[in-house]
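User: Predict the complex with magnesium ion.
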Amino acid sequence: MSLLSIAQANSQINSLSEVPEGMTCCLHQSDLEQSSSELLQAMGLVEDCSFQVCRNKGTCVLQVHSTRLAISRELASKIQVRVVN
Amino acid sequence: MSETDSNNDRLVSPGNSGRGCIALVGNPNTGKTTLFNRLCGLRARTANLPGSTIEAHIGSWNAAGTECQVVDLPGIYGLGLDRPESRVCREYLDGSHSRFPDADCIIVVVDATNLRRNLLLVGQILELGKPVVVALNMIDIARKRRLKIDPEQLSRELGCPVVELSARLGEGIGSLADAVRSAQPTSVDLPPSSNLQRCEQWSRDVADRVGGDSASTDTLTARLDVAFTHPVMGLLSFIIIMIGIFWCIFAFAAIPMDLIDLIFGMFSEFVSGLLPEGLVNDLMVDGIIAGIGGTVIFLPQICLLFFLITLLEDTGYLARAAFVLDRVLRPFGLSGHSFIPMLSAHACALPAIMSARMIPGRLERLATILVAPFLTCSARIPVYVLLVGFLFGDDPLLASLAFAGCYVLGGVAALLCSLVLRHTMLRGASMPMVIELPDFRMPSVRTAIVTTIDRGWVFLKNAGTVILGISIILWWLSAFPVSDPPLEAVQLRQAAEQVSVEDPDAAGSMIEQADVITGRDQVANSFAGRIGRFAEPVFKPLGFDWQLSIGVITSFAAREVFVSTMAILFSGTDDPDEEGVLQRIAGARRSDGSAVFTIPTSASLLVFYVLAMQCLPTLAVTRRETGSWNWAILQLVFMSAIAWIAAWITYMLVSMGGFS
Ligand SMILES: Nc1nc2c(ncn2[C@@H]2O[C@H](COP(=O)(O)OP(=O)(O)OP(=O)(O)O)[C@@H](O)[C@H]2O)c(=O)[nH]1
Ligand SMILES: [Mg+2]
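Assistant: Here is the predicted structure with magnesium ion placed in the model:
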């Protein structure tokens, strides 16, 4: 990951599947099917919540407060996030 | 006041059920079933894995002399979600689930280390207007992580009793009974559950005020996950763990197996000496002891399999494996959710097909149900051990490779069939994978031992009922009608009589040979022999003679019956005193005197047993879970066809390879 792309990642809204590992993000919006989006919300991934991206290769592992979530890349690509740091 | 008084000697006031009933609700993996087992003295399945309970269970709890019923429900993230587990809970809580009495009180089991998220569900449950108790479970872990939650403050915030609990250690159960007695519907104002934003804010505030809001993360889990969720390392570690489990099963099961064989051999000799020669002796020794002994010998392997899988389940690893395998399974039209059913199919297809209920997508669920019986269940282990022993008995390395090969063959068949199904009958998009990764924990050896004993007991009970019954029927079918000894045997006996004085040794061996010929002739002309001959043409291209055909037919009730069938069919035809069950089967002869278990036949039989749908109970469960016989019949037809064709190809190839 070059410094430039980290800077880019910082400044804009990204698809979750493109966020580098180790970054903290804030959920912006998602265009998921209703059933998936309701499930993620009930699991703690609500709008504006912040979480850490622990792994983002192939599949995506997130630490949302005390919950560790694994979601498929397909879902991650439909979730928009703001990178916090 | 008087009403409260009269209710005081009951734990909960009974609704229309007549008896008090308590429901256990909560997020997945918060310890509901552990608590249920603790309260009711039961042994329902628990695992460090979200989604380990798939249907409601009922038990009764005797709390200091007062009895009430307890219903354990599957874990849910929300009551209103369009998910199978949420549906089960809704149906039960709104009373449309007629099987169990309505709940008079609800215990929400909350993970104290993840209070904020768990409170979202607590809010939804409080809204139902029933008496609620919040059980703050896993308090032992919360303490270790120095989380300081104030239960009194939480109780005031929620308007219901809150009890600190460790279901695993049995801490706080006494206070739970008191709390249930005093529970009332909450009078606190809560945000409506339809407004998710406000609920989220509310749960955050409450968690913050009671001191449970510091994010608790487990550093060990984070470190282990670096390897276990890595796309390549995760897959590698999965393979290594699985190989390790199978290695353990083989390395450690041999000694107790030999011991069991020895004990049954001695017992058989003892009984045979005790009873006068004749029908009862034959039934006991050749029917019952041979049949049961041939099955019970595999108990150690089955126990080890369950012990190791239960330990693994309890560490929290399986959710990672499901996640890593999602990418592997997806091209075949399955998903990571299919992994848990497919893993449990290695123990038995019945619970596997039932646990497929929790797969959210209908198409993946059907595909998983249809292909799960390809995976090697524990009932196949006896057959594998027997046949692999015949093929590679003198080379342990090749034998274990062949054994592993059977598992791989079953797995590959399952994946390919799913691929075909998902491109034909079950075409459509798959549901994306979402799974919570529980923290890694030290597995409970006690749970593993208890599960192992339970499963071993089920296996033994099966040996004592189904296999005993089939053994007796089979013995009868092979002992009747009694046929006259063949001419060859009669002549041998006459010759023996003539030489008995000059050469008693030769006479003895002649009589022995005559017995073998008589025994073989008897089975061949018996009812069983006739059935076997009738079916023989179907199996002849696979290299099976009429005796193996009998085995294939009887094992339809349960696969392991094959071994007991062989033990019974071949028990009368050889000298039963000198060798163990397995050697006797190995030495079996066809009608023309050639060996039954040649290399091509053993290989094709092995392939047949890997792939064939030889299990009536599985068909019944498939019917129940899919709601139609069509799927069950489809499963039977395609699995049988694939098994026959693959076994035929194997037989041809191995025969052409010059092995005989
Ligand atoms: N340390 C600790 N572990 C616990 C406690 N209660 C349960 N566990 C463990 O947590 C894991 C999950 O327990 P289960 O009883 O299966 O949880 P459940 O809520 O029934 O899970 P689902 O049926 O999947 O919703 C198991 O490994 C238990 O041994 C507890 O109080 N302390
Ligand atoms: Mg449970």
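The pocket of magnesium ion (ligand 2) is lined by residues B 32-33, 52-53 (CB under 6 Å).
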